[in-house]
Write a structure and sequence with these properties.
Blueprint lengths: L2 H29 L3 H26 L6 H19 L3 H28 L7 H27 L2
Helix pairs in contact: 1-2, 1-3, 1-4, 2-5, 4-5
Length: about 150
Amino acid sequence: MDKEELINSLNWFYSLELNQVDLYLAQNKKFKDQYGGIVLERVAEIEQGHADSISSKIQELGGTPTLLGEVISPIIGTSLGTILSMTGLDMALRINIKLEEKAMSDYSELINRVEKDGDGPESELCKLLKYNYVDEDLHAALFAKIIGAQGE
């Protein structure tokens, strides 16, 4: 994969992560008095860290983080988060799990492509992508745990 293609892929993740930040913050407003609301706030902070690290990597590669991520993603994330919150915490978390699983799938695909193109599994970029993948997996597991605890 050439540098421009890598920057484009990273911009996809940058937009995705910013979308998730605003999605979870909007949901947090609705559920702030519940444990799930606290979790959503914390997960949003972690997703913001992902966006920041991806933005830095894009700039390090000579690219510019997409305006789509900075302008459109927050609007989409906030709107979707507000709408999903109306369905209740359980349904919002179920949809969040699907979003986290999509992010994991996309991260896995990019990790494989980056490693195939010569960046070793221990490279800074691969570690960044793998750490983000693990965080997405943890978020999905935590959301599932909250759903399970509500049923008890």
